[in-house]
């Protein structure tokens, strides 16, 4: 691969790794708190998909962490360098926009996966690990993380200020991830909300990822994979188009 | 010598503001070129169009024959740009910053050259210091260093000496001059006119997005700025014959414009004839500042300039 791409990827990874306490440890702790609280309240008598609520919750929390952190990485990196002006350092070199895209998305994915693995490791203390179809789980983690990495790029490119990015995060990313079946099976929802959930791509990521753990899911994993792949392809095309035009990056 | 940079009718608007109104300019390989103009004239915008940080609405820019839009990767490889804004990446040390920048340009194992740059910019002692801990002038020098990591044949410096102390400014210019001597083309913007006067072989002046002067520095000085004669009159008023030459007057002190050294004799003759005593007299060399001021005031029409 081209050195320009590799260096940009390395720089992006180094950027979050150097402040790992904030970018990795903190989100792992957050996920763990969710697990402790919800499991404490609900575990006694709730079983979903034939497993205890705690066990059910683990894959959802892992995937939610992957997605939120992948988004946070690319979006915060871009907005920060735009606001401080240091974005010129990556705009001046001869890095093709395809390489640019790949570097940011893969670094976002790397942060998502590192946090996700951290959450998974910590939860081993609370529920035994079950991995019925590890490849399915991996496929959803990679595609989902990459997709949110791309979405983070779009948000970071579009936003001019930190509060615009925060709005994007709070009004789009948070509801989409929280209302995606991380904390419940959508079969427990009233029919109307079940329908609504099917329009949320994050639902398919969580559901498919969970299939990798338990071998059961609300939607067929093939269908989920298709939905997630199509969404990822669409966001990739959009991001590449923005980068090619230099939208908001090049005046 | 070939053309290093070719701006061809470059136009750029920001909303209703015409930042560049069709600028055409050719800079030859090996030149030390000065781009001057008041705040907001469009210097940085022109450089941004060259560097691919902005896209012109019309016109084209080529670096050593490579179009900066169609052939952007090759064009950017040939360019080293020191941005005007003091920007830095707070996550890294000086050396890390320079290694990363080398990598962006596809250069591996660049430490020997990085060390040389650091040495020349007096940054060796700060090589492992985090960017956040540097003073403003040091950050500015790192910006210069970053632009040079890939030994670009064309080096663009957008006000590189703002906030840099005198000693370092000397060191920086020595280094840049050496690079120029080795064949690198230099394009410089600065508000320190004496700097431009001593360094640049040719100068272009921008005003409201238009090139209002373009000539060799020496000829620009000759053409637009005569000598200035400052007189303190002893007795009597200024003879009528000299009034058209008057630039300014404060009490008995008059400043007169002379087109050239040779006119001095005539002026003195006029004074003598009118019976004016002269208490004090000073003759000033032409300087770029005066050319600049006159051009910006519009005292010299565009037709007088040979683009
Ligand atoms: N991104 C932008 N959006 C809107 N207007 C801009 C933008 N960049 C520059 N301008 C405007 O374009 C004009 C030219 O600006 P430019 O930065 O090129 O001037 P300059 O000659 O570099 O001035 P200075 O000496 O102050 O650096 C100014 O009026 C400026 O306000
Ligand atoms: Mg400027």
TrEMBL record, chain A:
Compartment(s) where it occurs, according to its Swiss-Prot or TrEMBL record: Cell inner membrane; Membrane
Pfam families in UniProt: ABC2_membrane
InterPro entries from the UniProt entry: ABC-2_transport_permease, ABC2_TM, ABC2_TM_bact-type, ABC_2_transport
Residue stretches spanning the membrane: 20-39, 51-71, 83-102, 109-129, 135-159, 171-193, 224-243
Membrane topology classification: Multi-pass membrane protein
Keywords: Cell membrane, Membrane, Transmembrane, Transmembrane helix, Transport
Transmembrane recorded as keyword: yes
Residues of the ABC transmembrane type-2 domain: 18-246
Location (main, coarse): membrane
Family according to the record: Belongs to the ABC-2 integral membrane protein family.
UniProt xrefs under PANTHER family: INNER MEMBRANE TRANSPORT PERMEASE YADH-RELATED, TRANSPORT PERMEASE PROTEIN
Record protein name field: Transport permease protein
UniProtKB/TrEMBL annotation, chain B:
SUPFAM superfamilies: P-loop containing nucleoside triphosphate hydrolases
Name by which UniProt lists this protein: ABC-2 type transport system ATP-binding protein
Domain ABC transporter, chain residue ranges per copy: 5-233
Keywords: ATP-binding, Cell membrane, Membrane, Nucleotide-binding, Transport
InterPro entries membership: AAA+_ATPase (IPR003593), ABC_transporter-like_ATP-bd (IPR003439), ABC_transporter-like_CS (IPR017871), ABC_transporter_ATP-binding (IPR050763), P-loop_NTPase (IPR027417)
Transport found in the keyword field: yes
Molecular function terms from GO: ATP binding
Mitochondrion is among the record's keywords: no
Source species: Azospira oryzae
One protein family per Pfam: ABC_tran
């Amino acid at each position: 691969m081209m050195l320009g791409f590799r260096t940009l990827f390395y720089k992006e990874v180094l950027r979050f790794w150097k402040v790992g306490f904030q970018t990795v440890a903190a989100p792992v702790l957050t996920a763990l708190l969710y697990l402790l609280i919800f499991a404490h309240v609900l575990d006694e008598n709730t079983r979903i998909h034939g497993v205890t609520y705690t066990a059910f919750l683990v894959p959802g929390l892992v995937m939610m962490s992957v997605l939120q952190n992948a988004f946070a990485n690319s979006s915060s990196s871009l907005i920060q360098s735009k606001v401080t002006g240091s974005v010129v350092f990556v705009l001046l070199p001869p890095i093709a926009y395809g390489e640019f895209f790949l570097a940011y998305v893969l670094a976002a994915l790397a942060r998502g996966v590192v946090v996700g693995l951290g959450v998974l490791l910590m939860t081993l203390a609370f529920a035994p690990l079950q991995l019925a179809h590890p490849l399915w789980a991996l496929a959803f983690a990679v595609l989902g993380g990459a997709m949110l990495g791309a979405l983070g790029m779009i948000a970071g490119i579009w936003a001019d200020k930190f509060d615009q990015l925060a709005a994007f995060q709070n009004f789009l990313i948070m509801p989409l991830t929280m209302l995606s079946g991380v904390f419940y099976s959508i079969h427990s929802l009233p029919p109307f909300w079940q329908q609504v959930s099917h329009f949320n791509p994050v639902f398919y990521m969580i559901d498919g990822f969970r299939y990798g753990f338990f071998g059961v899911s609300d939607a067929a994993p093939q269908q989920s994979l298709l939905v997630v792949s199509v969404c990822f392809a669409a966001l990739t095309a959009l991001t590449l188009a923005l980068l090619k035009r230099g939208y908001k990056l090049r005046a | 010598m070939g053309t290093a940079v070719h701006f061809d009718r470059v136009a750029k608007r920001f909303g209703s503001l015409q930042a560049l109104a069709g600028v055409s300019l050719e800079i030859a390989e090996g030149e030390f070129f000065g781009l001057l103009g008041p705040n907001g004239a469009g210097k940085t915008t022109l450089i941004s169009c060259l560097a691919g940080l902005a896209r012109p609405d019309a016109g084209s820019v080529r670096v050593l024959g490579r179009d900066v839009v169609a052939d952007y990767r090759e064009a950017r490889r040939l360019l080293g740009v020191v941005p005007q804004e003091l920007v830095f990446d707070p996550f890294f040390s000086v050396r890390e910053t320079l290694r990363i920048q080398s990598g962006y340009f596809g250069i591996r194992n660049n430490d020997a050259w990085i060390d040389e740059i650091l040495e020349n910019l007096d940054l060796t002692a700060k090589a492992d210091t985090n960017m956040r801990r540097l003073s403003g002038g040091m950050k500015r020098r790192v910006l210069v260093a970053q632009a040079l990591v890939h030994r670009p044949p064309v080096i663009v410096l957008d006000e590189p000496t703002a906030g840099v102390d005198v000693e370092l400014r000397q060191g920086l210019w020595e280094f840049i001059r050496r690079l120029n001597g080795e064949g690198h083309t230099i394009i410089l913007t600065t508000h320190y006119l004496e700097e431009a006067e001593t360094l640049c072989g040719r100068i272009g002046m921008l005003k409201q997005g238009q090139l209002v002067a373009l000539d060799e520095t020496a000829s620009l000085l000759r053409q637009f700025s005569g000598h200035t004669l400052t007189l303190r009159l002893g007795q009597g008023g200024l003879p009528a014959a000299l009034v058209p030459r008057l630039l300014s007057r404060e009490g008995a002190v008059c400043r007169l414009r002379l087109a050239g050294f040779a006119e001095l004799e005539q002026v003195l003759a006029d004074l003598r004839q009118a019976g004016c005593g002269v208490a004090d007299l000073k003759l000033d060399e032409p300087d770029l500042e005066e050319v600049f001021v006159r051009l910006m005031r519009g005292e010299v029409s565009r037709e007088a300039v040979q683009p």
